[in-house]
């Protein structure tokens, strides 16, 4: 889910648009199940402290926003009383690969596992330093 909403230009635009349209249709269906118009949903969001216009919801539901901001989708899900896990998003190949790597790491002997932890820790520290300098 997160990967779909934060995916950069490495995906094919046609497929991403199809995925976004499917998510938008799902959000619209859940809104309709609550019996809310777009303006009613905007008002419900305002009650929860969210400040975005009904037109934003409309555009996301229509699938015309190619890469909606994660926080906006999360807010819409909260307003609808749904969790992000309920969204029908395709499996992310990167996440599948990470899951496989984690499974492989779990099978390592303790010494090799310690080496992997040290490498990951060093990479994490380096990324934090680089992020601070930007």
Name some characteristics of this structure.
2 domains; mainly alpha; disordered N terminus; 434 Repressor (Amino-terminal Domain); elongated; 69% helix; single chain; 7 helices; 134 residues
Question: Which helices and strands appear, and what pairs or packs with what?
Answer:
Elements: H1 2-6, H2 13-33, H3 38-47, H4 54-62, H5 70-79, H6 93-106, H7 110-133
What's a quick, concise take on this entry?
This protein is mainly α and 134 residues long.
Structure in words:
With 134 residues, the protein is mainly alpha-helical. The chain folds into two domains: 2-86, Orthogonal Bundle (434 Repressor (Amino-terminal Domain)); 93-133. Helices cover 69% and strands 0% of the residues. It contains seven helices and no strands. The protein has helices spanning 2-6, 13-33, 38-47, 54-62, 70-79, 93-106, 110-133. Helix 3 packs across helix 4 (54-62). The longest helix has 24 residues, at 110-133. The protein is elongated. The model is unreliable at 1-13 (pLDDT under 50).
């Amino acid at each position: 889910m997160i990967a779909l909403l934060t995916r950069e230009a490495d995906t094919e635009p046609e497929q991403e648009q199809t995925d976004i349209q499917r998510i938008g249709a799902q959000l619209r269906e859940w809104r309709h199940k609550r019996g809310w118009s777009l303006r009613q949903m905007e008002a419900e969001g305002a009650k929860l402290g969210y400040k975005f216009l009904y037109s934003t919801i409309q555009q996301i539901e229509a699938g015309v926003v190619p890469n909606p901001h994660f926080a906006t989708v999360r807010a819409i899900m909260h307003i609808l009383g749904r969790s992000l896990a309920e969204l029908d998003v395709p499996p992310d190949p990167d996440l599948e690969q990470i899951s496989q790597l984690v499974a492989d790491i779990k099978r390592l002997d303790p010494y090799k596992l310690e080496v992997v932890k040290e490498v990951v820790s060093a990479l994490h520290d380096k990324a934090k330093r680089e992020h601070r300098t930007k």
